[in-house]
Description:
Low-confidence stretches: none
Structural class: alpha/beta
Distance between the termini: 49 Å
CATH class of the largest domain: Alpha Beta
Order of helices and strands: EHEHEHEHHHEHEHEEEEEH
CATH architecture of the largest domain: 3-Layer(aba) Sandwich
CATH topology of the largest domain: Rossmann fold
Bound molecules: guanine
Amino acid sequence: MVASVLDGTSIAKGLERGLIARVDNLIKKSIITHLVVILVGDNPASEIYVKNKQIMCQKLGIKSTLVNVSSDVVQDELEQIIEEFNDDDEVHGILVQSPLPKKIDELKIASKILPRKDVDGFNPVNLGRLVQGDTGGIIPCTPLGIIQLLENTGETLEGKRATVLGRSRIVGMPLSILLSMKGIDATVTIVHSKTVGIEKICRESDILISAIGVPNFVKTEWIKDNSIIIDVGISRIEDRNKKSGYSIVGDVEKSANRVASWITPVPGGVGPMTIIKLMENTIRCSELS
Ligand code: GUN
């Protein structure tokens, strides 16, 4: 048997209509939902991600403003820009695209964005609420999208052994908290660069989520029969057979689909879910304004 595909593109598409209705309701109250995206420097991958966010904003009727900032920017200047949008009542969401130049303190930037405009959910107030089991704050987009993908399998998550590869601020850490939260109730293991016995841990996992960005790190032999695989990784590798000269691959070997029951494609799995959850968070910030 080959695993069923957890198609993020079509799941995200299915959510669009409901979001458009919410945006329209806000417009009836004279509220134009407005997201500001701040892009520092000219990282080509970030430029594509930001462009995709803007395209989706346009599709849903959300106003988006892209602020391009030179990579020479210093901490104070970037914080000043955020402050201006914090003070602007017509802006409902602020996102600073990661990664930032090394000299910029990303944690301070996350703290600077007002919690009620923090569409990424990275401000310590929002992350702190999450840690306390309070889902009323803003929850990071990729973890939210992954939970939605898991729910779409129709399988119960309660009591399942879930392994998260990677402990990043953006994906791994908040996702681990969400998965272990009351109501979802998975038993979570976090795998990181110092973990011993990764293979064995993976083999025992009913749900495996990899967010490390290392192409084909997770081998097909590590996959438990009938498990659910969520591949957050998206990397370019050289491929002479392709006209472009490269292929896009995830963290998990493609042939894992021969063992798992569900698997996300790369691309078209987690990526579209992150964007749609960003839209949901933005609309929520606008509704609460
Ligand atoms: N870079 C990669 N993913 C994300 C994300 O979800 N939010 C931000 N701000 N930057 C990112």
